[in-house]
Amino acid sequence: MPGITGFITFAGEDSHLSRVIAMAERLKSGGNTELTEARAAPGAALAHTTFRTCLTRPHIASSSDGRVLVVVDGCFHNGREGRSAADTVLGMYEEQGEQCIETLPGSFALAIGDSRKNRLVLATDGFGLRPLYYRTSPHGIAFASAVRALEPDGTPPGPVDEAGICDYLVVGFPTGPRTFFKGVNLMPSGSILTFRNGKVENRRYWRLAFNSAENRRSRMEEWVSAAEEAFLQALEDCTRGAAVVEVPLSGGLDSRCIVAVLHRLGVPMRTYTIGSADSEDARIAGMIARRLRIPHTSWALEPEDCLHWVREGVRITDGMFPAFDAHILHVASHLPEDSHLVLDGASSLDGYFPRHSLSIHRYLLPRAPRLQLLRKICSRPLFDKTGSLTSGDLFTDRFRQKAENTLTATLAHLDSCFPPDTSDAFDLLDSLDLSQRLRRYNSLGAHLLRTRCETLQPFFHPSVIEFARTLPGRLRGAGKPIIAELLHRLTPELSDIPYERTGLPPRATAPRICLARAIRLARKMAAAAIPGLPSPSGGMAIDYYRWLRTSAPLQTFLRDLLLDPRTLDRGYFSPEAMTRLIEDQLSGRTYNLTLLSRLVSLELWHRYFLEGEQSGDPSENRPMEAATL
Questions:
Q1: What is the β-pairing status of strands 106-114 and 119-124?
Q2: What is the dihedral of CA 484, 489, 491, 494, to 10 degrees?
Q3: Which of 18, 130, 222 is nearest to 449 (CA)?
Q4: Parallel, antiparallel, or unpaired: how do β-strands 68-76 and 59-62 relate?
Q5: Which of 399, 446, 465, 566 has a CA positioned 20 to 30 A from the CA of residue 51?
């Protein structure tokens, strides 16, 4: 995986260069990466790994006297021609100081080791799209793009932090700077950290604030024109210098939007789709590719394939993402050798509320407790509308008490993150979602794709964010009406191809959407009541529900892992409740994939990162036949 590492003491002349090189080696994921460069100054050393062929690779630079080092993971959209990202930052830093970071547009994590002033500066972009972890000690400060790289010899970088584990199990992701290790912190988004004289100071320089009250447009045509301008600018910037672009394509609207804009710009592209047998997602993606005559590859996955990406996904993400959601690794591992750039469809316009229910929510939500709003940004949370722990019988008495105490503190923290100058419920939730959950949950796809190829996220380009910031809630809702209208303008030939979430064309009316959802709900209820009756897939790329009920290897994997005495002896879970949870899932009586996915990740994290068990080489994945258009 490409990224950056460093160790700073500013005490004595030892730069610890060999230590930092060893740290950088631990970033490698076995893919198309290699260590390219490391530099040292008195008391400081920085390094990075990069792709063998990469358009926007991490860069490293040093001042003429060698006492200021800069390393950057990422790219800037206004970079000067012929200058690397690190050279750009170095020049600006020597002129303006650390304030220069506040004007950098793009996706980045960077470090500046300044031996002249005996200080280290770490910084992340406004959304924290590229993770950066750090740990202080009496000897100095270490930082890296992955937790596993903080120690050069692979030893755990600290004791286990059960508060981070509680967050992950109950809320769906570690909140704030928490990780699974005490003393190891994730850099906040839009922040600048300064380390000097053994002290750390952290300040936010940018916060996302939706404010739909600022909009001055009233007609849909005006909004669509503004969206078109924003996305054209974003995709032009993201693809500058790329001969061909790789795009994972689903049956949703976000990746379809990226493909439509690239088609308008005339940028060559190749698209890829994965899915289980009879995947509606894959079927729709194939329709899109055929209509636009785009080279397209699709893989029909089997349950056994899941075991490969689950293990490798945990290793790459330091265990802090749900294991079963790592299926995009299959696309990453099968990208062509000449791939330089992937565009990921993680969206800044993925609002929570269906447009047909917006008026009801607008009336009720401002009067609802803020806790009810908090639950909406959590991924299948294990707490109810009163803030009380649910599924508490899963935990041992000791861990349940820990989880309850942590939950109280976590909810207070999330409540404090609501934008103070925003009153609209839709703006509040979308701001909180993109500032808290995005980097710890929604960015998984980009994080995994980046292990094989440079990956950018056009929906977080400054032009798109500025457009989205004032977009009314009725256009930012879960049905993505603004994207549907933009697609109709850019590629009218796709207008009749259904949206996987509804099974209807993207511009379908609210009554049609309501009727389709009612029919789907009735079919699900009938399937639950009548054995053998197929359940509607709901547009899911992978039918985990069927896989878990029918795949003997997958069932064996879950039982052997989660009911192993090693797992149950850790003191987190009740053996009886764990057994019941697994058997209810495998028999089809319940559907708790989200929780099971967290449990699998947590146990594999213990084995890989605390006990040194090997996760296996991803290159051992068996080759698969692909359907190519």
A1: antiparallel
A2: 40
A3: 130
A4: antiparallel
A5: 465
Q: Could you give the CA distance from residue 575 to residue 578 in angstroms, rounded to a whole number?
A: 5
Any idea what the CATH number is for the domain that residue 99 is in? 3.60.20.10
Provide the domain limits for residue 121.
Answer: 3-204
d(CA 344, CA 351): 18
Q: Phi, psi (5° rounding) for residue 39?
A: -135, 155
* Token digits of residue 125: 């972009």
What is the rounded distance in angstroms from the CA atom of residue 10 to the CA atom of residue 141? 10
DSSP code string of 414-434: HHHTS-TT---HHHHHHHHII
Rounded Cα distance between 24 and 535, Å, is 47
Asked if residue 38 lies in contact with residue 47, where contact means CB atoms within 8 angstroms, the answer is yes
| Residue 147 within a domain | yes
Place 580 in a pLDDT band, splitting at 50, 70 and 90: very high
For 362, the token pair is 């607008």
- Length of the chain as a residue count: 629
Question: pLDDT exceeding 70 applies to what percent of the chain?
Answer: 87
Local structure of 613: helix, strand or coil: coil
Backbone dihedral angles phi then psi of residue 450, each to the nearest 5 degrees: -70, -10
Residue 572 lies in a domain: no
Q: What is the pLDDT of residue 624?
A: 46
Confidence of residue 428 (pLDDT cuts 50, 70, 90): confident
Decide if 312 contacts 615 (C-beta within 8 A): yes
Residue 557 Cα distances to 172, 307, 553, angstroms: 22, 8, 6
Hey, which bits of 17-100 come out as E strands?
33-41, 44-51, 59-62, 68-76
Pull the structure tokens for residue 286. 């194939």
In three-state form (DSSP H/G/I as H, E/B as E, the rest C), the secondary structure along 441-494 is HHCHHHHHHCCCCEEECHHHCHHHHHHHHCCCCCCCCCCCHHHHHHHHHHCHHH
Beta-strand pair 454-456/341-343: parallel
CB 381 within 8 A of CB 171: yes
| Residue pair 119/140 in contact by the 8 Å Cβ criterion | no
Q: What is the pLDDT of residue 418?
A: 83
Question: Among candidates 448, 413, 410, 433, which has minimal Cα distance to 320?
Answer: 448
CB-based contact 159:224 (threshold 8 Å):
no
Q: What is the pLDDT of residue 502?
A: 84
Per-residue confidence (pLDDT) for residue 441, from 0 to 100: 86
**Total structural domains within the chain:** 1
SS3 for 235-261, per residue? Answer: HHHHHCCCCCEEEECCCCCHHHHHHHH
Residue 582 lies in a domain: no
Report if pTM > 0.85. yes
Q: What would the two tokens of residue 506 be?
A: 């993207």
Q: pLDDT confidence of 617, banded at 50, 70, 90?
A: very low
Closest among 186, 192, 151, 191 to 167, alpha carbons compared: 186
Note the pLDDT tens digit of each residue in 400-419.
Answer: 999 999 999 999 998 888 88
Best CA proximity match to 314, nearest among 170, 451, 129: 451
Residue type, 394: L
Residue 501: closest CA among 488, 486, 483, 527: 483
Please indicate, yes or no, if residue 311 is contained in any of the structural domains: no
Cα 402 to chain centroid distance, Å, stands at: 27
219-278, pLDDT tens digit by residue?
Answer: 889 999 999 999 999 999 999 989 999 999 999 999 999 999 999 999 999 999 999 988
Give the model's pLDDT for residue 621: 40
Instruction: Give CA–CA dist 561/559, Å, rounded.
Output: 6
Residues paired with residue 121 on neighbouring β-strands, in sequence order: 112, 194
